[in-house]
């Protein structure tokens, strides 16, 4: 298996992605896609760029593509701006100014935290793009749209009266920060997408990619839930921004993240990276799914007998707390915050404190029982391997952005949490949008009229990778059984957080058997129907589970969030990222691109700032 490590670029793509200062002045509004058919049974559009997803990465990608003058369609499984995990959290971008000393100060500890699997050159490029792109938001009018939110009337010790929302542009000396309420931020990005002329199709999950006669990804098709009709978009390029995978763990907002974007990419030849680091567990107040809170990272903890629990770095690994939880329920308290900052914290994370208020708990002054929820690749690291600063997947016509793409070059074996994940969403979204628009320009409008072939396999069509012949018709409801079986392998702490050779082999045997079953049983009544959405989600979760466990079996050491109880030490010889791919027959190989840390990186030189900023109007 030969894995490409760099991409061949056309001249236009190289121009589009050569840095933050390389942007040309955009048109006021991008052209509209062409409407081919709009009937009760079918919607068919032609566009330059199709973006699949609706979170931060998808919206940044759509904005970047439209800035290049491309016609853009964005399709979302839910309602763009409110669906997915980001909409339930807070906004806290990782913003570091383009200064060599400050970059070193920020990146060095994250290299150790990430098990030295990161790439400093990539990280600097991500931080550069995030720094310059987020600087535009104030001019777009975001500050004027923010609303003051009540600080909350906590049932136990809550602060009364309204508290102003934190200023997302509050400055430290010589620097800029961006934080606040994610619902406001995503609502604004949706408005910006629409203002730029992007056509948004809500409640329209994509089911499979389309390719032309030469294998170039040229669109996708899916199903509109609310109108009950199929949709099809032919395009010059496609950006996948479908988010990570939580295996329906009931992580808040995460049950829409089921891996079919990764499966679609693999079906056309893309591969994945760092899938063994896809087992991150989020902390929740016991009996809830509220896992969107960074305050847990430096909180105080006690085991089921009341003894304090010492821990090292909860971004890197949560093994100390997870192990204690297997012996009994542990408790937490946010002892790290004084009374003076609590109203601001409540305003920044209203969703979390709404939950604790309903529970009658003041987490600042009281211990409360806590539990865990598997956050998979949403807070973990693994995903589609992108080859360059175009966020290219290695498959002609296909790009990936945000949580669906591996963040290992930025965070390594650790979680990206909120800040690095958002910086990656901004950067990869921008890169993919620009590159997709440039490729669409190179291909020209005639490519949208070609005959396109669907590529979907498991979860759409019978025998999608099964080795045994189909002996019986597809069973209605088989997706429920297979989903439950996948969750039984991926959600338990003693299977996914603490791994062992024999346990991984048993899980893989189960998952491989499920794959064979799915090839004959996981078949919808129609490949573009509501049934297909369910079967395709199940297929995505199953594929992601097999990639994760197969890669975990190959990493015979403990590093970051990957804990092997049979190999408890970190092996310096395994300081390489692992790539994986395949559908029925899986493969795992070391990434030929080595990590670049410390002095091995190129000396940092700040890029030329952009020569224009878009008008606020």
Topology of this structure?
Layout: H1 11-16, E1 34-38, E2 42-52, H2 56-67, E3 72-75, E4 90-92, H3 100-113, H4 120-134, H5 137-140, H6 142-145, E5 149-150, E6 162-163, E7 179-181, H7 182-195, E8 199-201, E9 206-211, E10 217-224, E11 229-240, H8 260-267, E12 272-273, E13 280-285, E14 300-302, H9 319-327, E15 330-333, H10 342-348, H11 350-359, E16 368-375, H12 376-379, E17 383-384, E18 398-400, H13 408-411, H14 419-443, E19 453-454, H15 478-490, H16 493-496, E20 498-499, H17 501-521, H18 530-554, E21 563-564, E22 578-581, E23 587-590
Parallel strand pairs: 2-3, 2-11, 3-8, 11-18, 20-21
Antiparallel strand pairs: 1-2, 4-7, 5-6, 9-10, 9-19, 10-11, 12-17, 12-22, 13-16, 14-15, 15-16, 22-23
Question: How do you describe this structure in short?
Answer:
The chain has 617 residues and is of the alpha+beta class. The chain has 18 helices and 23 strands. The protein starts with 10 loop residues before the first helix and ends in a 27-residue tail after the last strand.
């Amino acid at each position: 298996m030969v894995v490409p490590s760099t991409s061949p670029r056309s001249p236009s793509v190289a121009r589009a992605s050569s840095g933050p200062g390389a942007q040309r002045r955009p048109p006021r509004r991008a052209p509209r896609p062409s409407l081919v058919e709009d009937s009760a049974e079918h919607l068919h559009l032609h566009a330059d760029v199709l973006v699949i997803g609706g979170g931060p990465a998808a919206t940044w990608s759509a904005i970047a593509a439209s800035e290049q003058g491309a016609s853009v369609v964005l399709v979302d499984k839910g309602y763009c701006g409110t669906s997915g995990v980001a909409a339930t959290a807070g906004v806290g971008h990782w913003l570091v100014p383009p200064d060599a000393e400050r970059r070193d100060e920020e990146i060095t500890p994250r290299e150790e935290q990430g098990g030295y699997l990161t790439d400093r050159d990539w990280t600097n490029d991500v931080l550069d793009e995030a720094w310059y792109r987020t600087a535009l938001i104030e001019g777009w009018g975001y500050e004027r749209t923010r609303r003051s939110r009540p600080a909350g009337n906590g049932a136990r010790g809550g602060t009364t009266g309204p508290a102003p929302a934190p200023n997302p542009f509050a400055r430290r000396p010589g620097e800029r920060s961006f934080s606040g309420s994610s619902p406001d931020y995503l609502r604004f990005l949706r408005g910006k997408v629409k203002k730029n002329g992007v056509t948004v199709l809500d409640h329209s999950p994509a089911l499979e990619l389309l390719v032309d006669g030469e294998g170039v990804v040229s669109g996708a098709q899916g199903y509109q839930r609310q109108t009950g009709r199929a949709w099809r978009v032919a395009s010059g390029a496609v950006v996948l921004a479908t988010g990570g995978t939580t295996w329906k763990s009931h992580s808040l907002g995460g049950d829409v993240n089921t891996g079919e974007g990764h499966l679609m990419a693999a079906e056309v030849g893309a591969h994945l990276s760092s899938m063994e680091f896809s087992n991150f567990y989020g902390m929740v107040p016991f009996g809830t799914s509220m896992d969107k809170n960074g305050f847990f990272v430096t909180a105080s903890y006690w085991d089921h007998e009341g003894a304090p629990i010492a821990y090292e770095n909860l971004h890197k690994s949560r093994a100390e707390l997870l192990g204690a939880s297997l012996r009994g329920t542990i408790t937490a308290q946010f002892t790290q915050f004084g009374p003076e900052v609590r109203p601001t914290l409540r305003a920044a994370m209203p969703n979390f404190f709404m939950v604790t208020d309903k529970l009658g708990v003041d987490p600042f002054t009281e211990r409360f029982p806590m539990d865990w929820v598997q956050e998979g690749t949403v807070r973990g690291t693994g995903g589609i391997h992108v080859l360059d600063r175009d966020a290219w997947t290695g498959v002609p016509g296909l790009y990936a952005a945000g949580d669906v793409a591996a963040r290992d070059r930025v965070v390594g074996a650790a979680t990206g949490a909120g800040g690095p994940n958002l910086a990656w969403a901004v950067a990869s979204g921008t890169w993919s949008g620009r590159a997709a628009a440039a490729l669409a320009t190179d291909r020209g409008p005639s490519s949208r009229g070609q005959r396109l072939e669907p590529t979907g396999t498991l979860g759409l069509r019978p025998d999608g990778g099964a080795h045994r012949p189909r002996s019986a018709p597809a069973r209605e409801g088989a997706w429920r059984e297979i989903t439950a079986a996948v969750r039984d392998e991926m959600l338990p702490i003693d299977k996914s957080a603490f791994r062992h050779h024999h346990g991984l082999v048993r899980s893989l045997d189960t998952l491989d058997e499920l794959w064979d079953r799915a090839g004959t049983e996981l078949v919808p009544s129609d490949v573009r129907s509501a049934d297909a959405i369910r079967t395709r989600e199940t297929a995505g979760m199953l594929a992601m589970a097999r990639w994760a466990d197969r890669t975990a079996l190959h990493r015979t050491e403990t590093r970051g969030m990957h804990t092997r109880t049979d190999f408890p030490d970190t092996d310096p010889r395994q300081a390489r990222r692992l790539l994986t791919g395949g559908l029925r027959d899986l493969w795992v190989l070391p990434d030929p691109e080595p990590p670049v840390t410390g002095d091995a990186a190129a000396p940092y030189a700040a890029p030329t700032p952009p020569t224009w900023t878009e008008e606020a109007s």
